[in-house]
Amino acid sequence: MQRELNIQSVQGRMPVKYSIKTINRILGIIFQAFIIFCCLLVLFTSLKAKSSVWLKIIPLIVLFVALDNLLRHLTSLNCVIFTPEYLWLKYLLLPSVQVPYDSISKLELRKEITYNVFITFTDNKGKTRVLKCPASFPKMIEILYNLAELAPQAQMNDQLANMVNVIRDIKSKGEKVE
User: Fold this and answer.
1) What pLDDT is recorded for position 64?
2) By C-alpha distance, which of 123, 117, 118, 81 is closest to 102?
3) Residues 28 and 74 sit within 8 Å (Cβ to Cβ)
4) Which among 158, 22, 162, 157 is positioned nearest to 90, based on CA atoms?
5) Four-residue CA torsion sign, 178, 132, 71, 57
6) Exposed, middle or buried by CB within 10 Å (0-12, 13-18, 19+), for 12?
7) Given phi > 0 = left and psi -120 to 50 = alpha, else beta, which region is 174?
């Protein structure tokens, strides 16, 4: 059974906000902090000089993975806001980025290890910057469609252009997107 996609245009109803569910973010941060605490507890209280090498290495490996995941939770994209003038990308620990639609020069959907969206734009200082956003962000197809509509001057790679054109065709026929 196919699932229906409800892709809506943000034009005429801005500001529109897309974000990661807060409970998911909070639980992820709490869980990683708990794992880090447990690893530190094991490292400083349970290990002795005669403990096997494996018992010394495993908590360090788990600690490294937990720290990496915690930093990813704290520095990954948290919220996307469409306003009439610009696209606003918010992060938890990193500074927010405002991208005027007319400064977006390129949109790409690329698969490295996972799929990512790359937004190339020119900032206020005239420097070309590239923002990398995970394609797994909630409602990313709708976000990409609206970016393509609000920044028509942006070049898109073939994969993204095909996706946007299919959505445009379906919307122009008045059908539901599935």
Assistant:
1) 96
2) 123
3) no
4) 22
5) positive
6) exposed
7) left
40 CA to centre of own chain: 30
The encoded tokens of residue 148 equal 């393509």
Q: State the Cα–Cα distance between residues 107 and 145, nearest whole angstrom.
A: 11
Q: How many CB atoms lie within 10 A of CB 138?
A: 12
For residue 75, give Cα distances in angstroms to 62, 89, 130, 144: 20, 12, 16, 21
Beta-carbon contacts of 40 under 8 Å, excluding residues fewer than 6 positions away, are 63
Q: What is the pLDDT of residues 134-164, one digit of tens each?
A: 888 888 888 988 998 888 898 998 888 888 8
pLDDT at 113 (0 to 100): 86
Closest CA to 114 of 137, 80, 88: 137
Does the predicted model carry a pTM greater than 0.90?
Answer: no
Compute the average pLDDT of residues 96-113.
90
**Given a cut of 80, is residue 30 above it in pLDDT?**
yes
SS3 state of residue 22: helix
